[in-house]
Amino acid sequence: MPERRLALVRGGKPPEASGDERPYDDWGQLARAAGAGDPRALRTFLVGAGPYILRVVRRVLGGTHLELEDVAQECAFAVVDALPGFRGECSAIHFVCRISLLTAMSTRRRWRTAKRSREVESEIELDQVASLHPSPEQRLSTQASLELARELMSTLPLEQAGALALHCVLGYTLLEMESTSGVSRETWKSRLRLAKAAFRKRAMSDLRIRELFAPWGGDSA
Amino acid sequence: MSRGDETDLLIRARRDALSPEERKRLDVVLESSVEERLLFRAGLGFDAQGSAAPGDDLLVERLAARAELRAASRAPEAGPIRLGLRTSRRARRFGPLLAASLYLVLGAIIGVAGAATYFASPFAASPPSAAPNARVAHPPSEPGRVQPAPKPAASAELAMAPSASVRIEATAAPRTPVRASAAPSATTTASRVVEQREAPPPTHERVFELTAPTEVTGESSAVLYAEANRARVRGDLDSATRSYLLLQKRFPASTEAAASRLTLGNLYLVAGHPDLALTQFRAHQAENPSGFGAESAWGIAAALAQLGRRDDERKALRDLLARYPGSVYESAARRKLSEQE
After folding, report:
1. What would the pLDDT profile of A139-183 be if each residue is shown by its tens digit?
2. Which terminus of chain B has a smaller tally of CB atoms within 10 A, N or C?
């Protein structure tokens, strides 16, 4: 069976023209120079983009994943390969984050397909989870939610998985999702709605979450 | 309220950018929808995991170095173009080999010429032991630079063996030699390299040429920076430190020198010299480097923490948050501040 890989492609309806109101991107010129083959610009850009690549990979795989560096390296390669195609339609950092996200997600899905995932199940220490109200129940639900989101990124259709990843993992607004992808806001909303429905369905079948939210009793079923 | 607004409300809440009224709306959304509640918590978890970690700077360096190598191997014309040589399409296919050969030949010529000059030079008798005391990390004329504090005896720089390159810094002015006189047989390549120099040759040029590593001698700030990076990646931190300082001394206004302040600051930090690191990071900040200010701001806070200056550290963290909102260091800085307050 041929392997499906995530890639930076255009899809859905084109975004509405909103004039040339893009904010100035101080990385844009550097990214274009790097994409044009300037070795100094490439070096500078990679060193600057590295923390952002790491941030994305940590979110997708988990902060203590054993393969973190290898996947981050794949992302860096993918960024270098994609830089010549950077046209400044979004900020260079959003470009880097999106490519890193797709690459990391592809790797994760590949592992799942090959059934050789080395994912650390309990990769979040309780005291590392950010929470506005850090009660044990909420920490546990955070951990369970994280695992569910990661699982769905590997199992949902690619479009929905991408929407979930951009929204939940990277924390992008709809406007940012539109600007980084060229896909319209309405398309993203639609994909996100389907992804959230799948998330809810999966969450309701998870024993830990059912116990945590026992009083909910299907409040929004 | 539309669903799109709700979506963005959750994201803005993760960025701590909600007004009191929006906070109330958020509470309503979270109360009424289980999946929004779970996704919100998952998002907070992702945010916590995406924060920078100790050692990231070295990890990033490794990633960048490998990606750079890979990019170079896929762009065979990079070498010849950099040297300003025109090559045919056929020749470009052998670009990496050609470039390597050129560097080797050039290195050999320089080495032979250098050795010949060395044995004839009166400066060859300069005592190597004078080096550590004579070392000056940065020229006083460099704009925006904060002069480093006196180095402790255990400094990484002072720990270097009194090698030939140490003697260079003790005696040579921050200039580059006239290569044409030392290596008259060096052809177009050498003469093009000479054109890249920033300043006319000084009187001590021969000493510098003799003692600097072959790769460094006669190269531009970019090559000097690359040499320093290679040394650092292979773990030769003394050599890397030396090369970064040499770069800052010879090409103080170059972009590579500016970038090296950040890298060298991190090296000093890892080596346990926070005072030296602080100097480098502050110089980096003073030069207002586009796109990398958050890194040196974080470095300043880390150096102050190592120095035990907690009040200054908190001030530096607040400064980082104010000047670089949304940087990768944001959550780590907030966490540190909350731990201390």
Report:
1. 777 788 888 888 888 889 988 999 999 988 888 888 888 888 888
2. C
Find residues 113-172 of chain A whose CB sits inside 8 Å of chain B: 124, 128-132, 138, 141-146, 148-149, 167-169, 171-172
Interface touch A142/B45, C-beta < 8 Å = yes
Range A31-35, long-range pairs (CB < 8 A, 24+ positions): A31/A83, A31/A86, A31/A88, A31/A92, A31/A95, A32/A86, A32/A88, A34/A80, A34/A83, A35/A83, A35/A84, A35/A85, A35/A86
How close A147 gets to chain B, by Cα (Å)? Answer: 8
Round to whole Å and give the CA distance between A104 and A219. Answer: 35
For A42, the closest chain B residue by CA position comes to B68
Q: Does the pLDDT at position B53 exceed 50?
A: yes
Distance from CA of B282 to the nearest CA of A (A): 18
User: How far is Cα A51 from Cα B230, in angstroms, rounded to an integer?
Assistant: 20
Rounded Cα gap, residues A118 and B52, in angstroms: 23
Cα separation, B155 vs A151, whole angstroms: 49
- pLDDT band of residue B14 (cuts 50, 70, 90) is confident
* Residue B312 burial (CB count, 10 A): 16
The dihedral through the CA atoms of A36, A41, A45, A46 has a sign that is positive
Q: Is the dihedral of CA B207, B213, B214, B217 positive or negative?
A: negative
> Is residue B258 within 8 Å of residue B289, measured between CB atoms?
yes
Please tell me the distance from the alpha carbon of residue B26 to that of residue B7, in angstroms, as a whole number: 10
Res. A3 pLDDT band, cuts 50 70 90: low
State how far residue A203 is from chain B, nearest Cα, in angstroms.
8
Q: Which two tokens stand for residue A162?
A: 């991408």
Instruction: Using alpha carbons, select from A208, A198, A199, A204 the residue that is nearest to residue A217.
Output: A204
Tokens of A139: 């920490």
Contact B42, A202 (CB under 8 A): no
Tell me the two tokens of residue B318.
């607040």
Distance from C-alpha of B95 to C-alpha of B85, rounded to nearest angstrom? 11
pTM across the whole model: 0.48
Contact check, Cβ <8 Å, A199/B39: yes
Tokens of A19: 């004039």
User: For chain B, how many residues are written?
Assistant: 341
Chain A residue closest in CA terms to B293: A48
A130·B292 Cβ contact <8 A: no
* 299-318 of B, contacting A, C-beta below 8 A: none
Average pLDDT over residues B35-42: 85
Which residues 169-228 of B have a C-beta within 8 angstroms of A? 222, 226
Q: Which amino acid is at B240?
A: A
Contact B67 A69 (CB under 8 A): no
Residues of A in contact with B39 (CB under 8 A): 145, 149, 167-168, 196, 199
Asked whether the beta carbons of residue B66 and residue A199 sit closer than 8 angstroms, the reply is no
